Structures
1.
Amino acid sequence: MFGKLTAALKEGLRKTKEKILGGIRAILPFGRELDADLVDQLEEHLYTADIGPKTVAKMMAAVRTEWKERRIKTTDECFFFLKSHVKGILASEGSNLRRAASGPTVILIAGVNGTGKTTSIAKIAHRLKKEGTVILAAGDTFRAAASEQLGMWADRLGVRLIRHDNGADPAAVAYDAVEAAISSKATWLIIDTAGRLHTQGNLMAELEKVKRIIRKRIPEAPHETLLVLDATTGQNAIVQAAEFGKILDLTGLVLTKLDGTAKGGAIIGIRDQVKIPVKFVGVGEKIEDLEDFDPDSFVEALFEPPETKA
Ligand SMILES: Nc1nc2c(ncn2[C@@H]2O[C@H](COP(=O)(O)OP(=O)(O)OP(=O)(O)O)[C@@H](O)[C@H]2O)c(=O)[nH]1
Ligand SMILES: [Mg+2]
């Protein structure tokens, strides 16, 4: 696990940082006494920073308590309190993937349409193939182009793809893929699924069936069930995590499209409201554009002072 900030993550967070940190710094310039007006301004700013109202309310309650009890008296103290508070919200038990004690480790990927599931699978496979054999399963049999898209990635990565015809039962694809992973002694099996809305009851039931079928063959699988969320959808992502969590035992989140958005503050709200660790963040469309989520580096990236001008 690396704790270092990569250039891609820094660059990806640039707009978010301008919005969040820029605003906070304008309200809390160094070396001033904190007063009620500044606290109100800070609150207003945070409400516009895509963090989400519930989380901002909690953050501000904490700030006001610290201030009333005179533990923070200056703008600097307030700034550093906020920083460590956000770190506390984001802290998690680490972004390492769980692994099977023996046999293939099965990773099931789910999420609503277009969040970046298939792309994230390719990115994860690209990493994991350095540590063993990877098999991909085209469990999105719903859209004609879906297995072609995954097939293209499989070719590029030089990994095996298990697919059926379009319209086939995704659970059957999953079953075959698990069989193939066991018999070929693969290290990893990553199963793609069709995008679906949590309101589509039949499609959610289909997902549950996929999981059931996998378990028939490997009872402790899937070892990871990752929900892919588009970070730019903010509050919506929180609802998606809650709803998918009812059907699947989610073990991790992949937050995509952090690059180029000013809405990266949503991660703070998502992490606060959804008690599932963020395992990866997507910072671009290229195969390397996936980062382990390291809360400390993330907060440093958001709160570190801008490059000082001479
Ligand atoms: N900028 C950026 N684009 C991304 C990222 N991840 C995915 N995308 C893009 O988002 C679009 C959708 O990605 P897919 O991987 O096809 O999404 P999906 O969830 O599999 O979509 P469906 O299968 O249709 O539900 C593509 O254009 C990707 O290149 C990311 O981290 N950053
Ligand atoms: Mg897809």
Note: Residues 111, 113-119, 140, 146, 195, 228, 256-257, 259-260, 282-285, 289 surround guanosine-5'-triphosphate (ligand 1) (CB under 6 Å).
2.
Amino acid sequence: MNSIDFRRHIHQYPELSFGEHKTQEFILEQLQAEGIECRAIAGTGVLAKIEGRKGNLKRAVVLRADIDALPIKELTEVEYCSRNEGVMHACGHDMHAAMLYGVLCRLNRERNFEGTLFGIFQPGEELNPGGASMILAERPFEGYDVAAVIGQHVDARLDVGQVGICPGVFMASNDELRFWISGHGGHAARREDINDTVTAMADMVVRTTALNTPNSVVSIGKVIAEGATNVIPGEVYAEGTMRTFASEEREHIYTLLAANANAIEQKYGVKVKVDISRGYPSVTNDVMLAYEAMIVATDENITVREMGRIPMAEDFGYYTECYPSLFYRLGVGAASGGSHTATFLPDEAAMDYGERMMLRMALHILNK
Ligand SMILES: [Zn+2]
Ligand SMILES: [Zn+2]
């Protein structure tokens, strides 16, 4: 099967995060038909392995694609439109998987490299805790010297034929924040009998958003205080998001949030509960790998766009915490529409560029 047909099949039968059973079955079947060694991993993922013809087999490169879809009802009119009602490959993961399949097929036929090549078809990128953390928890690369983990993501802001590469910190960590402030509610006119939970939360929100810096985002998007003109509620709730580009920055803000909570308790005589639901860590590209990728792309006549940081999150960050890694963007053109929308349709012409980029990078590193 060629990559385009592979992509269209996966597109037609999208499955939600951690429920990629049929997708997994299909990938295993197709890899086995090509004689590629593979097995299930992290529940609904697939790990493929190809050994080169020479060199130290303990030296490895890992190529990663994600395979999950989103709870969106597809509104495109292509003949390979989603047949799973209310589920859609609206983030391009069908393409990521197909390009990885294409690269593995070619490298398996030639095996013209040194060391071992792994391919990860990773479940659950779109949902906490992220499939990447589950893959790594199984320690599939123990005993290997992993020279690079490489992943790519389609991007409609870049044209077909372009790749976007960012040396160093690239994408943000993403945590969910929740606050509860409780105290004695009561008649709003009897201030001596109440704790002003509403003012306490207002103060908490101001202190929290004061933590924004050029390197971090802290936003509160929801506050619920269900009192009335003359009622101070016993509890007020707020929630928001926090994004940072470095683990030290992230830990530092956690400490400041706790200090703020303490200060609010002292000042208003209330009880403050803070819950931080940790999301993905930031994606930090290996600087050398990023520059090597720029050279490889140029050799392949793929246009390089050097990118800056973007405040979006990706569970690829877990790999970048463990191994030298590179995550780059693959242009699919503005006509593809917006990702995570019902009409997103990335241009398949980009797949050739994505496959060549991944394949050349793998060979470049393995044969170094
Ligand atoms: Zn997505
Ligand atoms: Zn995605």
Note: The first strand starts at residue 37 and ends at 41.
